[in-house]
Specification:
Order of helices and strands: HEHEEEEHHEEEEHEEEHHH
Keywords: Membrane, Transmembrane, Transmembrane helix
Radius of gyration: 25 Å
CATH architecture: 2-Layer Sandwich
CATH topology: Alpha-D-Glucose-1,6-Bisphosphate, Chain A, domain 4
Protein name: START domain-containing protein
Shape: globular
Helix content: 25-40%
CATH class: Alpha Beta
Structural class: alpha+beta
Length: 407
């Protein structure tokens, strides 16, 4: 009846501010969780699928890997970098910069120390200063939460066993090549650039470069930028062979110098100046790409780990968000598998997925994700329409009630 409708409208209007505030907080929290869970920009780890700004800068490609075990078999180390279209490009700040502060061998040693702490036990393990707790084990993918103890930056270590005909070199190219990475994982970045590089003096030595990444933050928060010294080097045969990509941020003084040089080269770029973002710091990030043992058939094992402090976000909030975002690793691996299958086939872009993970095919997962996303959009539109119609009916009922009272 109109009186009851009027009372209901009054109660709704009284609750409206609280509902709006709750909705805003929920959206902000969800955005923050996505942002922190995707702290892997620039190779730190998997990103999410949200749309966003993306800026493709002059960036060299990873050298095509011709054999999994030795850098000496990775062709093109001494050749000029080329883009996906074949056009030669150069690092933003030039080549020949040997001012690296990190030791690639030490970074690789620490990466394997973290990895061994993760696989030391079914549920949890410890080795040296690191302690790991398994947070997810699904579809051939495992994610561990890693704690270094004390004031050490917590992080994650993720492993995927991928049954794929694509060789190790395809996965290395997809993960290390900037433009290749943007092809299949571009939604994780606002900008992803190679600032400078230093060619290896010998073809079997580690190759180093310095990359700049900008991560889009939720509305109301400043974007994060991270500068990383990045190394491509072989994995020892006693650790399974393959190729590793290891990264760490330089000192704050070196970071400031590089960012100032970048802004000087690019000039004023509204909304994208590095000075307008908060600096994140990578303690250690790594990819370990190794072939499966021959007895297990074709495939690769990809390990991704990240110890990155986003800055300005409490450590406990970062830890909670990383744990909440573990499920995104499965989708990230499926996109990687699909792209590598296309690379191996000699095509361009992301095509049909490869054979997939140990459990759960990538093709099925991708189709399901597409359908689920469409269904969620339809449900949201239907909910908004229902709310609008209910509000319109309540407003008419209240107006009729007021008219009757006046008469």
């Amino acid at each position: 009846s109109p009186p009851l409708a009027g009372q209901e409208l009054g109660r709704t209007l009284c609750r409206a501010p609280a509902l709006v505030l709750t909705g805003c907080l929920k959206n902000a929290t969800a955005g923050l969780l996505r942002f922190i869970a995707s702290d892997g920009a620039g190779g730190c780890g998997p990103g999410d699928q949200r749309g966003g700004r993306r800026q493709l800068m002059s960036s060299p490609e990873a050298p095509p890997c011709r054999a999994p075990a030795l850098l000496g078999s990775i062709g093109g180390l001494k050749k000029p970098a080329a883009s996906a279209s074949g056009e030669q490009v150069a690092p933003l700040l030039g080549s020949g910069d040997n001012s690296f502060e990190s030791d690639p061998g030490e970074l690789l040693r620490r990466a394997f120390e973290i990895y061994r702490s993760c696989i030391g036990d079914v549920e949890s393990g410890s080795a040296g200063q690191f302690r790991a707790e398994r947070a997810m084990d699904k579809d051939g993918c495992t994610v561990w939460m890693v704690d270094g103890g004390g004031d050490a930056t917590p992080g994650t270590c993720s492993q995927a066993v991928i049954r794929s005909a694509a060789p190790v070199e395809a996965f290395v190219q997809a993960l290390h090549g900037v433009q290749e990475r943007l092809t299949w994982d571009g939604s994780s970045f606002v900008s992803y650039e190679v600032l400078c590089s230093s060619p290896a003096e010998q073809i079997d030595q580690p190759r180093g470069d310095i990359v700049y990444c900008r991560m889009q933050a939720p509305r109301g928060m400043a974007d994060r930028v991270v500068v990383q010294e990045r190394w491509l080097l072989p994995v020892p045969a006693n650790d399974g062979g393959g190729v590793a990509v290891v990264m760490a941020s330089p000192s704050e003084a070196r970071t400031e110098e590089l960012l100032a040089r970048r802004d000087a080269v690019l000039g004023p770029t509204p909304g994208h100046s590095a000075s307008l973002a908060i600096h994140a710091k990578t303690v250690l990030s790594a990819y370990l790409v190794r072939p499966l043992p021959s007895a297990e058939g074709p495939g690769v094992v990809v390990v991704a780990m990240s110890q990155t402090d986003l800055g300005g976000v409490p450590a406990w909030a970062q830890a909670v968000a990383r744990r909440a975002g573990t499920g995104r690793f499965v989708q990230w691996v499926r996109r990687l598998d699909a792209h590598c299958a296309q690379l191996s086939a000699g095509g361009a872009g992301v095509g049909p997925p490869g054979p997939g993970l140990v459990a759960g095919g990538a093709a099925k997962g991708q189709v399901a994700n597409k359908g689920t996303g469409t269904l969620h959009r339809l449900l949201r539109h239907a909910a908004f329409l229902a709310i609008a119609l209910a509000g319109f009916w309540l407003a008419r009922a209240a107006a009729a009630h007021v008219t009757v009272r006046i008469q």
